[in-house]
Amino acid sequence: NAGVTQTPKFQVLKTGQSMTLQCAQDMNHEYMSWYRQDPGMGLRLIHYSVGAGITDQGEVPNGYNVSRSTTEDFPLRLLSAAPSQTSVYFCASSQASGRDNEKLFFGSGTQLSVL
Amino acid sequence: DAKTTQPNSMESNEEEPVHLPCNHSTISGTDYIHWYRQLPSQGPEYVIHGLTSNVNNRMASLAIAEDRKSSTLILHRATLRDAAVYYCILVQTGANNLFFGTGTRLTVIP
């Protein structure tokens, strides 16, 4: 029972480089989202999706792109990394509706450093 | 989104009960009260949620004030594994997005 899987676990980038953080879930969840967590802070919502082909912005979307071509995958793209994007990134998923739809399942995170 | 207020940190002795408070004076009638916790170097995990009535599950109990302006997460016997940051979050009915505060860091003393 894999749940929510994030790769890579650690990544170091140079300013201006691009990369994609991968997130996959095997629970057939419609809703998926990305959060970032800076030291000593709570998580902040970057982007979210309520189903394949549908994405929307969260609290802090600037500098990040997402797409949702399948139910299982929700990659997060940094087109031109900046030091301000140094953070720990968490992916989460849940049912989009129905009983307990607000119960989110989180991945174990990707620690990203931008030099 | 309605805000919650939690103490920054709390301590508990191992095997004793822990009561983690949360104030949410601007809660609306359609807001559920959710609790998540985040163990060191891990993603948050769901603990419990409720609307009006007190709730129990295998992890914890949730006591909700009659006016719903505050709630308390109860861990009946704290273990070292319960050391984590606990987040109290209000979630509108049917919503999926969570808006985290800074939570309460619980330290369990052996």
How do the strands and helices of this protein lay out in sequence?
The complex is a heterodimer of chains A (115) and B (110).
Chain A: E1 4-7, E2 10-13, E3 19-25, E4 31-37, E5 43-51, E6 54-57, E7 64-66, E8 76-78, E9 87-94, E10 105-106, E11 110-114
Parallel strand pairs in A: 2-11
Antiparallel strand pairs in A: 1-3, 3-8, 4-5, 4-9, 5-6, 7-8, 9-10, 9-11
Chain B: E1 9-13, E2 18-23, E3 31-38, E4 45-50, E5 55-56, E6 61-64, E7 70-75, E8 84-92, E9 104-109
Parallel strand pairs in B: 1-9
Antiparallel strand pairs in B: 2-7, 3-4, 3-8, 5-6, 6-7, 8-9
Would you tell me the overall average pLDDT of chain B?
93
From the N-terminal CA to the C-terminal CA of chain B, the straight-line distance is 38 Å
What is the distance, rounded to the nearest whole angstrom, between the alpha carbons of the first and last residues of chain A? 36 Å
Helix/strand/pairing category of chain B: mainly beta
- H and E string of chain A: EEEEEEEEEEE
Strand content of chain A: over 45%
Largest interface: A-B, 28 and 22 residues
Q: What's the count of strands of chain B?
A: 9
Q: Could you estimate the helical fraction of the residues of chain B in percent?
A: under 10%
State which percent range the strand residues of chain B make up.
over 45%
Can you describe this structure?
The complex is a heterodimer of chains A (115) and B (110). By secondary structure, chain A is mainly β. In chain A, 0% of the residues lie in helices and 49% in strands. Chain A is built from no helices and 11 strands. Chain A has strands at residues 4-7, 10-13, 19-25, 31-37, 43-51, 54-57, 64-66, 76-78, 87-94, 105-106, 110-114. In chain A, the strands form 2 sheets. In chain A, strands 2, 4, 5, 6, 9, 10 and 11 form a 7-stranded mixed sheet that branches. In chain A, strands 1-3-8-7 form a 4-stranded antiparallel sheet, with no helix packed on it. In chain A, strand 5 (43-51) and strand 6 (54-57) form a beta hairpin. The radius of gyration of chain A is 13 Å and the shape is globular. The N and C termini of chain A lie far apart (36 Å). The mean pLDDT of chain A is 93. With 110 residues, chain B is mostly beta strands. Chain B is 0% helix and 47% strand. Chain B has strands at 9-13, 18-23, 31-38, 45-50, 55-56, 61-64, 70-75, 84-92, 104-109. In chain B, the strands form 2 sheets. Chain B has a 5-stranded mixed sheet with strand order 1-9-8-3-4, with no helix packed on it. In chain B, a hairpin with a 6-residue loop joins strand 3 (31-38) and strand 4 (45-50). Chain B is globular. Chain B starts with 8 loop residues before the first strand and ends with a strand. The chains are: A mainly beta (115), B mainly beta (110).
